[in-house]
Design goal:
Blueprint: H1 8-23, H2 35-39, H3 44-53, H4 59-82, E1 87-91, H5 98-101, H6 103-106, E2 110-115, H7 117-129, E3 138-142, H8 150-153, E4 166-169, H9 178-191, E5 197-202, H10 211-226, H11 237-245, H12 263-268, E6 270-274
Parallel strand pairs: 1-2, 1-4, 2-3, 4-5
Antiparallel strand pairs: 5-6
The structure holds S-adenosylmethionine.
């Protein structure tokens, strides 16, 4: 990703989270009251107007996907916190508002928003423009995942990688080359302490999907490419199993364990949670 300004795709996923609050019935899957404002809209009416003027791709279905994946990650985080984890690293945070929403948790949880420098600078300026103060336990780390390691990015940070951390990586891997994703996941496994947990999501190659799902994935890839954020890779559960579970592989630094999966996510983009484990 080589650009200045906001991540259009991060704005897009935030709009889906915001629209969920306005368009979908209770009970909500995920409640993100900051999403609309972070995405740049002053009112629900303005946002809904923008949504109808752009031809959204399968809007209700994708609204479910984007809200479910965030909910899934935060449910896993809740369990991790009960196990004593007190550090949350959000890789490719985009307009994630966890640190602003969960004041109840951030007093005892350090949150690290990690993102491409351009996306992060835009979000920080937007939050400041809204007059919202960044919580004291929120830390910003700029990393270009194609070119920098976690250790480099976190060099000046107060993170304690000697203790377990919880990490999420949602809606990011398709914007990275497969080499960068593999490097980053190995990086996570070798940098973090035993007991750490990563929830990540990836997009399967269209050729492996049912026709309607393949069309959906292809449409998203084309739209995001046209918006300046091309999809650089797809991957599959088989790929991750092969990469991380082969004991003799030089890359076998993570062992991926599939956990419960959400059916809505599974329909379009495969959601899975992987816990790095260590020899
Ligand atoms: C679709 S958004 C997802 C944002 C958020 N995780 C969510 O679920 O709403 C993709 C994110 O990946 C980040 N990203 C893409 N390429 C990147 C790179 N090379 N290095 C760091 N971040 C990158 C973008 O800045 C953006 O925040």
């Amino acid at each position: 990703m080589e650009r200045n300004g906001p991540s259009r795709t991060a704005i897009g996923t935030a709009v889906h989270r915001a629209a969920h609050l306005v368009l979908d019935e209770d009970p909500k899957i995920f409640v993100d009251p900051f999403a609309r404002a972070f995405a740049g809209y002053a009112s629900d009416a303005e946002m809904l107007q923008a949504i109808v003027s752009v031809e959204m791709i399968e809007f209700p279905r994708m609204r479910a996907v984007f809200n479910v994946r965030s909910r899934y990650a935060e449910d896993e985080l809740d369990s991790a916190i009960t196990r004593g984890i007190d550090q949350y690293v959000i890789l490719g945070a985009g307009l994630d508002s966890f640190a602003y929403r969960r004041c109840d948790l951030v007093a005892s949880l350090n949150v690290f928003e990690v993102d491409h420098p351009a996306s992060q600078a835009w979000k920080r300026a937007r939050v400041a423009e809204l007059g919202i103060a960044a919580p004291t336990h929120l830390h910003h780390i700029s990393i270009d995942f194609e070119h920098q390691t976690l250790a480099e990015g976190f060099a000046e940070s107060i993170v304690d990688f000697g203790k377990p951390v919880f990490l999420s990586l949602l809606g990011v891997t398709q914007y990275l080359t497969i080499d960068a994703t593999v490097r980053m996941l190995c990086d996570v496994a070798t940098t973090t302490a035993p007991g750490s947990e990563l929830v990540f999501q990836f997009v399967q190659p269209p050729a492996t999907l049912a026709r309607d799902e393949a069309a959906l994935v292809t449409a998203f890839a084309e739209r995001n490419g046209a918006a300046g954020e091309p999809w650089l890779s797809y991957s599959s559960r088989r790929r991750w199993n092969a990469t991380f579970l082969l004991p003799a592989s030089a890359e076998s630094c993570i062992s991926a364990r599939r956990k419960r999966r959400n059916a809505t996510c599974e329909a379009v983009v495969t959601g899975c949670a992987c816990r790095p484990t260590f020899p």
